[in-house]
Design brief:
Blueprint lengths: L3 H10 L9 H12 L4 E8 L5 E8 L9 E9 L16 E3 L2 E3 L7 H13 L7 E6 L7 H8 L4 E8 L7 E4 L2 E9 L3 E2 L9 H18 L14 E9 L5 E2 L2 E9 L8 H16 L4 E10 L2 E2 L5 H10 L4 E3 L14 E5 L13 E3 H15 L3
C-alpha cells in the first residue's frame, strides 16, 4: 500500500499548471481510487484555449455514483499556479528537516495525497460520501463553477482542501475582480488642450477608490484579520508614448468581501463614482467589466462539521483571507470547512512545502470523517 508521502511525491512529479490539461493527474487519482473499488465519473470539458479539462466525481464501493444528494463531499482542485523557469526542483520532491518541498506540495496536492491514503485505510464508508476533483481553481474556480451550474452534486457538507495548517477554516473572504477602462483623447503633448489625458482621468477615479477602501474599514467582521473588505489596484497601464496625451488607461481592481457583504458592493460604488465624475466633467468616460464575483462564506461555529474537525485536530476554527472554492458552494445553507496540511504563506513560490507530520495527521482526520460513526 502506498503511503501518503509516496502519493504526494508522485503527484508533485506530474506537472499540472492551469494552462495544461489535468488529465494525467486525474488519471492517477482515479486509478488509485478504482484500485480500492471506488467508482468514478469524468466530467470533461474544453477550456477557452481548446485544452481538455476534467472534473471527477468518485464514490466509495457499493454507493451509487449517480445519486446527487449526498451527505459529505471532499473537494480538491487539481491545478497549480505556474512555477518559475529557474525553479529546477519544482517537479522533484525534495525532503528537508521534516518538510517536503515541491510545486503543489501544499496547494493542494498534499491534501489529495491525504485523501487517497485515507480512502485506502478505511474499511467502511459513511453513506453519501464523495471525493470530487476540480479543474482550473487557480484561475477562477472554473471547474467548480461548472459542477454547480450542471447541478452535478447537492452536498449537505463539504470539506474543501486548501493549506490551513490543519485548522478548520469555517469562514473565508470572497474574491472579486474587475477591469476598469478610462477613455481620453490623444493629442500631441505640446498641445495638451487638444486632448484629454486618460491617465489624469484615471487618477481621479483611483483617488475615489482609495477613499472607498478606507471607508470600508468601518464595516468590520471581527473573525477576520484584516477585519474588513480589502481593495487592491494590482495592475495599471496606459498611454502609447512620452509625447502623446494618453487616450486610454486600464487597471485591474480586486476586492475581497467579508461574509455577509454583497460581492456587488464595491462594483456598485465604483459605477456611482464614474457617474459623479461624469456629472462634473462631460469629457470623463470610463467603463467597468466584472471578471469575477465570488462572495465570502461562513459556517456557524456550532455546525457539526466544524465541531468534528476541531475535536479531531485539537485546533481552533479560523478564518482565511484568500479565495477558495468554498465561495462557489456557499449558498443553500451548506456546512463548509476549508482544511488541509501546509501553510498558504509558502504556496505560489519556490518556498512551497508541507510538513510531513501534518500529512500523517490529516490522513487520520480524513479517515475518521470518511468512516461511519
Amino acid at each position: 500500500m502506498k503511503t501518503v508521502v509516496d502519493h504526494l511525491c508522485q503527484l508533485i512529479r506530474i506537472p499540472s499548471p492551469s494552462a495544461v490539461s489535468n488529465r494525467r493527474l486525474v488519471d492517477y487519482a482515479a486509478g488509485s481510487l478504482q484500485a480500492l473499488g471506488w467508482s468514478t465519473r469524468e466530467l470533461p470539458y474544453q477550456d477557452a484555449g481548446g485544452i481538455e479539462k476534467l472534473n471527477l466525481i468518485a464514490a466509495p464501493p457499493s454507493q451509487n455514483i449517480e445519486v446527487r444528494d449526498v451527505d459529505l463531499v471532499f473537494m480538491c482542485h487539481t491545478d497549480t499556479v505556474p512555477f518559475a523557469s529557474d525553479w529546477e526542483d519544482a517537479l522533484k520532491p525534495v525532503f528537508d528537516v521534516g518538510l517536503l518541498h515541491g510545486c503543489g506540495a501544499c496547494d493542494v496536492k498534499g491534501f489529495l495525497a491525504c485523501l487517497l491514503s485515507a480512502a485506502a485505510q478505511c474499511g467502511t464508508f459513511l453513506p453519501g460520501l464523495r471525493i470530487v476533483l476540480t479543474a482550473e481553481e487557480e484561475i477562477g474556480c472554473l471547474g467548480a463553477s461548472r459542477l454547480l451550474a450542471d447541478d452535478a452534486l447537492r452536498p449537505r457538507c463539504m470539506v474543501i482542501g486548501e493549506p490551513t495548517s490543519l485548522h478548520p477554516a469555517r469562514a473565508g473572504k470572497g474574491y472579486c475582480l474587475a477591469e476598469v477602462t478610462v477613455f481620453g483623447k490623444e493629442a500631441h503633448s505640446a498641445h495638451p488642450g487638444q486632448g484629454v489625458s486618460a491617465i489624469y482621468q484615471a487618477a481621479r477615479l483611483i483617488r475615489a477608490i482609495e477613499e472607498l477602501s478606507a471607508s470600508l474599514r468601518d464595516e468590520r467582521h471581527a473573525f477576520f484579520d484584516p477585519a474588513w473588505t480589502t481593495i487592491n489596484l494590482g495592475t495599471i497601464e496606459g498611454g502609447t508614448a512620452k509625447n502623446i496625451v494618453p487616450g486610454l488607461c486600464r487597471f485591474q481592481l480586486e476586492w475581497r468581501p467579508v461574509p455577509g457583504q454583497s460581492p456587488d458592493r464595491v462594483l456598485s460604488e465604483v459605477e456611482q463614482m464614474i457617474a459623479r465624475l461624469r456629472k462634473v466633467d462631460a469629457e470623463f468616460r470610463a467603463e467597468v467589466m466584472p471578471l469575477r464575483q465570488q462572495p465570502g462564506f461562513e459556517t456557524p461555529d456550532a455546525a457539526a462539521l466544524v465541531r468534528s474537525l476541531q475535536s479531531l485536530t485539537g485546533r481552533a476554527a479560523v478564518s482565511i483571507p484568500f479565495g477558495s472554492e468554498a465561495s462557489i458552494f456557499a449558498s443553500a445553507g451548506r456546512e463548509i470547512v476549508v482544511f488541509g496540511p501546509g501553510d498558504m504563506r509558502t504556496a505560489h513560490s519556490r518556498r512551497e512545502c508541507v510538513p510531513l507530520a501534518e500529512l500523517e495527521e490529516a490522513v487520520r482526520c480524513l479517515r475518521a470523517l470518511m468512516s461511519p460513526a
